[in-house]
Amino acid sequence: MTVKIRLTFVALAALLTALGATTALADSSQARYDVRLIGAKVGEMAMASNETASAYSTRARFATTGALSALKQASFDLSASGGKSGNRFVPRSYSEVTSEGRRSTNLKISFSGGVATRVTGDTGSSAPAVNPRTLPGAYDPLTALYAALRDQAPNQLCSLNADVYDGHRHARLSLTSRKALDGGRVQCSGQYRRIAGYSTSELRHSAAPVSIIYVPQGNAMRADTVVVRTRYGKVSMHRR
Q1: Torsion-angle region of residue 44: left (phi > 0), alpha (psi -120 to 50) or beta?
Q2: 102-107 long-range contacts, Cβ below 8 Å, gap at least 24?
C-alpha cells in the first residue's frame, strides 16, 4: 500500500470503505462507510469483525467509486487476527492486498509475542526500514483501525494510543482528547503521526489530525463519523 493510500486509510490513516459484499465471520459485526475527500465521495469501505474475550479477527475492503474511480481505480483487501490482553490487542497475522492501476502489492506480516517476526512482500518504500524489535506491542494498520472503529463501552472511549508497524514504517495513532456532544455523542480527537521508516519528504508532513464521533448504540458507543485532515484536504468516513 502506498504512503498516500495508507494515510488516507489508517488515519485514515486509514481511510477506507467497501466492496459490495463482505465476507461474513461467525458472530461478527459488520460496518460500511462512505469515504469522502473535501466533501466528494471517493470510495466505499466495509469491515467485518469478530471479537471474543481472548481473540479477534477483522477484514476490511475498500474501493474507489464515482468520478475518482474513472480517473484512478484503487482497492485494498486487508485482514488481521490475534489475541487480546485486557483491552489491548496482540496481533498474530496481517495481510494486505492492494491495487492501484497497474501496480499491485501483496504484503504479509507475522507476529510472535507482540513483535513482528516476518515480513514478506512489497512494503512500497525505499527508505531505511524500522527494526520491528524496537516496537513491542505495536499494531498492524488494520488492527489500529479496528481498535478505533469498533463498538466500545462509554468508559473505554478516547484511550487509544498505539504504535503502528506496517512492515517497514513506524507511526502512532492516538485518540486521547474527549469532548461530550449533544444527544449522548462523544468526540475523540488526536492524530496519526509518522515517526520512522519514511523518507525525508514524507516526514515534512508527519502528522494528520484525526477525530471520531461515536453515537450511542444500546449499551455501547459506535463510530459514526471519522475526519482526518491531510495535506490533500479533509478526508471523512460516514457510517451507513
Answers
A1: beta
A2: 105/1, 107/1, 107/166, 107/167
Residue-wise pLDDT tens digits, 127-186: 999 999 999 999 999 999 999 999 999 999 999 999 999 999 999 999 999 999 999 999
Query: What is the average pLDDT across 184-202?
Result: 96
As a whole number of angstroms, the distance between CA 144 and CA 12 comes to: 10
28: pLDDT confidence band, cut at 50, 70 and 90?
A: low
* Residue written as grid cell 496519526: 192
Angle in degrees, CA 10, 60, 132, rounded to 5: 50
Count of domains for the chain:
1
Report the C-alpha gap between 44 and 16 in whole angstroms: 6
- Which residues have C-beta within 8 Å of that of residue 90, sequence separation ≥ 6? 82, 83, 84, 111, 114, 137
148-159 burial code (b ≥16 CB/10 A, e <16): bbbbbeeeebbe
Cell of 33: 462507510
Q: Whole domain around residue 96: which residue ranges?
A: 3-239
